[in-house]
Write a structure and sequence with these properties.
The protein is of the alpha+beta class and about 90 residues long. The chain has a domain of about 60 residues: YefM-like fold (3-Layer(aba) Sandwich). The chain is built from four helices and three strands, in the order βααββαα. The chain has a three-stranded mixed sheet. It is elongated, with a radius of gyration of 26 Å. It starts with 15 loop residues before the first strand and ends with a helix.
C-alpha cells in the first residue's frame, strides 16, 4: 500500500468585513477587488448573514487520469473471491 500525502495551504483566517446588501450592490466591484486580494466579505440583511464572498481555493496538483492510474496497478496473488469461498468451506469466516 502506498503513502498518501495531503498538501494543504494553511493560512490565518482574515478579518471578515460585514456589509449590507444595499452597500454590496453599490460597491460590488470594490468588494470583488478586496476578495481577489485574499479578504472575505460577509453580506448581511437585517443583521443576518445571507452571503459570503471568499476568494477561490487555490488549485493543487492535478491527479493523473484514472485510466492511467488503473493501468499502473498490477494485481497479483489469488483472487479474493476464491479466498472467501475457501474460508467459508473450511468454516473460518
Amino acid at each position: 500500500m502506498g503513502l498518501v500525502v495531503y498538501d494543504w495551504l494553511v493560512q490565518e483566517a482574515p478579518t471578515m468585513k460585514r456589509v449590507s446588501v444595499a452597500e454590496a450592490r453599490k460597491r460590488l466591484k470594490g468588494l470583488l477587488d478586496e476578495v481577489s486580494s485574499g479578504h472575505q466579505v460577509s453580506v448581511v440583511r437585517r443583521g443576518r448573514e445571507v452571503a459570503r464572498l471568499v476568494p477561490p481555493r487555490r488549485r493543487g496538483r492535478r491527479l493523473p487520469a484514472l485510466g492511467a492510474f488503473r493501468a499502473s496497478i498490477r494485481v497479483t496473488g489469488e483472487p479474493v473471491s476464491r479466498v472467501v469461498v475457501r474460508a467459508r468451506r473450511e468454516g473460518r469466516y
